């Protein structure tokens, strides 16, 4: 059977829509609020921008990739909360206008901050009318392995040897922008499908289950094949197959049977062919009549969206049954399914794939390799414990209706004996992870967890810059710009900084005018974690000199210890909430969060605040949102 038979329709699955901005519509109240904000922009904010900002941030200069010329005319671009969020943080940090230009006078600064807040209130009232462009995409490597597991019951993961999936969207490997199909991958899909079906045939119980609909060996060969194929395709395609779908694969069976009348061999070939069709390998390829108008997903599409969000796998029988009854349009049913699915062990995939990529803790297996001369306690067992701690902590918060502010600070963590020794927590025995109350306030939340501290260190020394960047980018959603060219770097080798502490070298580095702006934001959160060495052990000195963990955050807020720094993180919880909700919306939709998503984004933030920052109401609100349950 030729490969082009399996993939003749693949190119038809790769069409992408183009979403346009449509925020100011349908709601009179929303339109009034937006109009009022726009009028205030012209009257209050525009004069300040023209006076103090346009010389660097016009269409010609576009410093920091910010172009305020786009805002001269009324329109949706004026209401971009992510742009204004960046502006707000620069104002609070006192880094804009940059030195040596004189700062904004207090009245100008207050005018800008007041308008930014007023704009967010206006965007919150705008209707969410645009779901974003439809992006049909293939299963990523993790989803492919999980789907084969749940479809066939196999233990092996033949897709784990595929090339790594690139990160797109909001930094996740489920983005249609990066999940392309290459000739190499096509060949690997063929091999993987063959390996999967071979394992089914080698394990009698799996083969028996697959062929269970065939209740008699006296049926004509192709009739028996059809009886087994139809229920299989419902599950494999995550929707009822069309008659064309069924007949195409029965044609494969017949052709194989004609060459060699071996029923088992013909069945294996037919099932293998099913596993390389677009309807198995791609998500959301249902055709629709008018691709220019938004439409609500049908119930089978909703079943797949739910399952690949929370399980990174195919819908189970209950979801498919509800989809067949068209019940996944009902809000109460959706809520019940979210709770059921989170309680299922398969939802650990949500923790692994969402939290692991958002917080980057999976990198403990890929890029953490400390120099054993500086970290003699490190070994494979400790590496696994590092991962297990942050995984269990994140799983508790995301799957079990935890309070997500615990990511920033907490009085507990999850430890086993190996990691407890590193943390100097007594009374923990055995290899199993268990929730443990922390004996003091040295640690709390994920900034003091060994997986993060090791990932943001060099093999021989800590890095306040890497740690500060991780906090700004992953936790607070306020990434610093890339460093200017030829700015110079501190050496990674600890010998090169033996005469001083890393902090002293950094402070000398940021005295350069070209470095000062970024390092004013980068360094303080990194300094706050200097009491933790390259594997997360507490230390009081570096190179024989006392650790100085003090710093000053934006707005002149000082801290002297990691505990005081974490309290400041909690003061910045609005930034963390926006970062979390943005990442979650991007992960759920498999694309970047766009301007038309911003009313939804603000509503998700409000749900989180109104529910005492609990995760379950947030996830329920997400699956009921327009971007999640609709498409162009």
Write down the overall geometry.
globular
| Sheet with most strands: strand arrangement | 1-2
Low-confidence stretches: 1-31
Total strand count, please?
Answer: 10
Outline the structure in words:
The chain is built from 26 helices and ten strands. With 632 residues, the chain is mainly alpha-helical. The protein folds into five domains: 28-125, no CATH class; 136-283, no CATH class; 295-343, no CATH class; 356-571, no CATH class; 574-631. The chain has a two-stranded antiparallel ribbon. It has a two-stranded antiparallel ribbon with strand order 3-10. Strand 8 (551-553) and strand 9 form a beta hairpin. The longest helix is centred in the first third of the chain and has 25 residues, at 28-52. The radius of gyration is 27 Å and the shape is globular. Mean pLDDT is 87; it is low at 1-31.
Topology of helices and strands:
Blueprint: H1 3-7, H2 28-52, H3 81-93, H4 106-125, E1 137-138, H5 141-152, H6 183-202, H7 204-210, H8 221-236, H9 243-259, H10 263-274, H11 278-281, E2 282-283, E3 295-296, H12 299-310, H13 317-324, H14 331-343, H15 348-359, H16 380-399, E4 412-415, H17 417-423, E5 434-437, H18 450-455, H19 464-475, H20 502-509, H21 513-527, E6 541-542, E7 545-546, E8 551-553, E9 557-559, H22 562-571, H23 573-589, H24 598-610, H25 615-623, H26 626-629, E10 630-631
Antiparallel strand pairs: 1-2, 3-10, 4-5, 6-7, 8-9
Short structural description:
By secondary structure, this protein is mainly α. The protein has helices at 3-7, 28-52, 81-93, 106-125, 141-152, 183-202, 204-210, 221-236, 243-259, 263-274, 278-281, 299-310, 317-324, 331-343, 348-359, 380-399, 417-423, 450-455, 464-475, 502-509, 513-527, 562-571, 573-589, 598-610, 615-623, 626-629; strands spanning 137-138, 282-283, 295-296, 412-415, 434-437, 541-542, 545-546, 551-553, 557-559, 630-631.
């Amino acid at each position: 059977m030729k490969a082009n038979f399996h993939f003749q329709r693949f190119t038809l699955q790769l069409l992408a829509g183009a979403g346009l901005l449509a925020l100011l519509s349908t709601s009179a109240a929303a339109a009034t609020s937006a109009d009022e904000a726009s009028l205030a922009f012209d009257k209050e904010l525009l004069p300040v921008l023209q006076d103090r900002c346009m010389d660097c941030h016009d269409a010609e200069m576009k410093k920091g990739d910010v172009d305020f010329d786009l805002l001269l005319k009324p329109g949706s671009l004026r209401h971009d909360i992510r742009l204004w969020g960046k502006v707000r943080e620069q104002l609070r940090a006192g880094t804009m206008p940059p030195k040596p230009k004189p700062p904004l006078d207090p009245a100008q600064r207050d005018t800008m901050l007041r308008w930014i807040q007023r704009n967010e209130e206006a965007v919150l009232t705008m209707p969410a009318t645009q779901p974003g462009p439809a992006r049909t995409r293939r299963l990523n490597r993790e989803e492919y392995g999980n789907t084969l597991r749940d479809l066939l019951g196999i233990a092996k993961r033949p897709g784990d040897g595929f090339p790594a999936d690139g990160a797109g969207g909001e930094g996740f490997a489920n983005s249609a922008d990066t999940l392309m199909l290459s000739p190499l991958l096509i060949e690997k899909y063929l091999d993987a499908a063959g390996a999967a079906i071979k394992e089914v045939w080698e394990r009698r119980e799996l083969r028996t289950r697959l062929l269970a609909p065939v209740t008699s060996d006296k049926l004509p060969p192709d009739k028996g094949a059809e009886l087994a194929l139809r229920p299989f395709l419902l599950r494999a395609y995550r929707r009822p197959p069309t008659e064309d779908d069924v007949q195409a694969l029965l044609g494969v069976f017949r052709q194989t049977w004609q060459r060699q009348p071996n029923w088992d061999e013909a069945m294996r070939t037919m099932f293998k062919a099913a596993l390389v069709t677009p309807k198995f390998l791609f998500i959301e390829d249902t055709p629709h009549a008018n691709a220019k108008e938004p439409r609500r997903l049908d119930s089978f599409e909703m079943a797949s969206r739910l399952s690949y969000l929370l399980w990174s796998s195919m819908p189970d029988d209950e979801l498919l049954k509800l989809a067949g009854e068209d019940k996944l349009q009902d809000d109460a049913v959706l809520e019940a399914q979210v709770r059921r699915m989170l309680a299922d062990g398969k939802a650990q995939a949500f923790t692994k794939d969402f939290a692991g990529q958002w917080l980057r803790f999976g990198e403990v297996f890929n890029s953490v390799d400390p120099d054993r001369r500086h970290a003699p306690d490190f070994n494979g067992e400790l590496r696994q414990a590092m991962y297990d701690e942050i995984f269990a902590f994140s799983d508790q918060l995301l799957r079990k209706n935890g309070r997500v502010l615990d990511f920033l600070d907490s009085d507990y963590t999850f430890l086993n004996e190996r990691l407890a020794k590193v943390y100097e927590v007594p009374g923990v025995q055995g290899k199993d992870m268990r929730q443990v109350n922390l004996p003091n306030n040295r640690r709390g939340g994920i900034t003091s967890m060994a997986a993060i501290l090791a990932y943001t260190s060099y093999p021989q020394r800590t890095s306040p810059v890497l740690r500060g960047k991780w906090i700004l980018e992953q936790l607070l959603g306020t990434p610093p710009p890339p460093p200017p060219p030829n700015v110079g770097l501190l050496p990674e080798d600890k010998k090169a900084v033996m005469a001083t502490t890393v902090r002293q070298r950094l402070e000398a580095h940021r005295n350069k005018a070209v470095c000062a702006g970024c390092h004013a934001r980068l360094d303080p959160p990194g300094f706050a974690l200097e009491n933790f060495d390259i594997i997360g052990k507490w230390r009081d000195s570096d190179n024989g000199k006392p650790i100085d963990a003090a710093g000053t955050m934006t707005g002149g807020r000082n801290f002297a210890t990691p505990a005081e720094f974490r309290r400041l993180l909690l003061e910045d919880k609005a930034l963390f909430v926006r970062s979390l909700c943005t990442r979650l919306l991007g992960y759920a939709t498999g694309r970047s969060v766009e301007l038309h998503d911003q009313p939804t984004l603000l509503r998700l933030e409000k749900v989180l605040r109104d529910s005492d920052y609990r995760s379950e109401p947030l996830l329920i609100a997400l699956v009921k949102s327009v971007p999640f349950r609709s498409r162009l």
